[in-house]
Amino acid sequence: MRAVGMDDGQITRMITAEAATYGVIGLIVGCAAGLPLYRFLYTLMITHYFGIEPPIPWVCLIICIGITVISVCIAVHTPVKRINRMAITETINEL
């Protein structure tokens, strides 16, 4: 993309948008699959024997969101730093 005229800021925004999109989609799919599985297992193991209804695991959800945000930041920082240090000719020659 640098070879066709993108500057460093545009490349950074593009990589950030891609990583954030993957992170958000991962959170949505993970919650859509994980929460029903959690409820099923909790009901099977706890509610069935003790009668306690499954609570929403807010702490686990917040931890997952935090880990995803940290992962997205790392996924953006490392490639952007490497790309910005490379010359355009090196980028083209890598293809």
Textual characterization of the structure:
The protein has 95 residues and is mainly α. Helix content is 82%, strand content 0%. It has three helices and no strands. α1 runs antiparallel to α2 (58-85). The longest helix has 43 residues, at 8-50. The protein is rod-shaped. The mean pLDDT is 89.
What's the arrangement of secondary structure elements?
Elements: H1 8-50, H2 58-85, H3 88-94
Helix pairs in contact: 1-2
The helix tally amounts to 3
Report the C-alpha radius of gyration, rounded.
21 Å
Sheet with most strands: none
Strand content: under 5%
Our measurement of the CA-to-CA distance between the termini, rounded to an integer number of angstroms, reads 12 Å
- Tell me the helix content: over 70%
C-alpha geometry: rod-shaped
Uncertain regions spanning at least 5 consecutive residues: none
**Succession of helices and strands:** HHH
Please provide the count of β strands.
0
Multimer state = single chain
Mean pLDDT: 89
